[in-house]
Amino acid sequence: MLDAIQRVEERIQQACRRSNRNREEVTLVAVSKTFPAEYIVRAYENGLRIFGESRAQEFKGKVSGLADDIEWHFIGHLQRNKIKYVLPYAHLIHSIDSIALAEAASEYAQNHALPSVSVLMEVNTSGEEAKYGFSPREAQDAFLKMNEMPGLDLKGFMTIAPFVSDEKKIRASFEMLRRIKEATSRFAPPENTAELSMGMSADFETAIEEGSTIVRVGTAIFGAREVQ
Fold first, then answer.
1. What are 86-103's pLDDT values in tens digits?
2. Cβ contact 144:167 at 8 Å
3. Residue 148 near residue 84, CB atoms below 8 Å
4. Looking at domain 2-222, which of 3.40.20.10, 3.40.50.11750, 3.60.150.10, 3.20.20.10 is its CATH number?
5. Residues 188, 147 contacting (CB under 8 angstroms)
């Protein structure tokens, strides 16, 4: 696993150099979803501290059984009836994909005296029907509405590029989210639009070149997942 982590790190550094960015501008989230806890332990022993999960109950189980200094990110679709498994423990939730979910998270944070819940707004920049998220057209208004909700601390945006081999289409998806961020930043404090979570194992270098501040890398670190 150490070799895999080092290869990912080198790819991040190369992408940063190509785009004249500092390596410190990009956060690596090791996506450990579906992998057993021992994989996370191995990655932790090899220096990683930030992990991403996408299933609420699996997330809760791993949080309670692993090192206290792990920074946990929730990156998958979150159902409203399962926010209790995620909100108290997640450092950052990447996938607020509807106003209804944002309102439920806001209500939970207030009812349970959470200081705030750090979240990203998910935008469906590919236009694929199977994906969750706000449409690009509604993203700015929805973001500004969510930014007024008590208990939520908006940090920026997330997207998933289309699963295609055409790099132009992948890059266009990332560029669209960057432009949404730039447009929204004129109306919101800088700290609320600071993050762009985009890029996974197959496309994180392109994402970095387009301004990603958080890349979500699983397969390139842990290997291929079994079909679930």
1. 999 999 999 999 999 999
2. no
3. no
4. 3.20.20.10
5. yes
Choose among 130, 197, 208, 193: nearest CA to 159.
197
Which residues make beta-bridge pairs with 29?
A: 216
- Average pLDDT of the chain to the nearest whole number: 96
Q: What are the tens digits of pLDDT across the range 150-203?
A: 999 999 999 999 999 999 999 999 999 999 999 999 999 999 999 999 999 999
Is residue 171 classed exposed, middle or buried when 0-12, 13-18 and 19+ CB atoms within 10 A define those classes?
middle
Q: Which pTM value belongs to this model?
A: 0.96
Chain centroid to CA 208: how far?
A: 14
Domain locations in the chain as residue ranges: 2-222
Question: Hey, what are 189's tokens?
Answer: 């404090």
